[in-house]
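User: Please predict the structure of the protein below. I'd like the answer in structure-token form so I can feed it into my own downstream comparison script.

Assistant: Understood. Taking the following sequence of 104 residues as input:
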Amino acid sequence: MDLKKTNAPVNTTTYNKTIIEEPTGNVYEAITIIARRANQINSEIKKELIDKLDEFATYNDSLEEIFENKEQIEVSKFYEKLPKPHALAVQEWMDGKIYYKTSK
């Protein structure tokens, strides 16, 4: 998942309910699918962020040598500016990129 190439909004956006429920015919089912995808995206982003921040980890027991790492700050700022996982999931839903299967 390339987070730089997404066109998901960073701010809160109002969506048309009929467009959201159109693929499933049920707004609650659509929201459940979007919520599950948002959880997946959140897990992916969290794992990626932890992996990048582990590169900067220092394993010292002394509190005297705490310093700022500019690269670590830049990585953190990048992830703070990203759209939220639910916004990414809704954008994927609207673009038809989410595969789901019903058990009827």
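That's the full token string. The mean pLDDT is 86.
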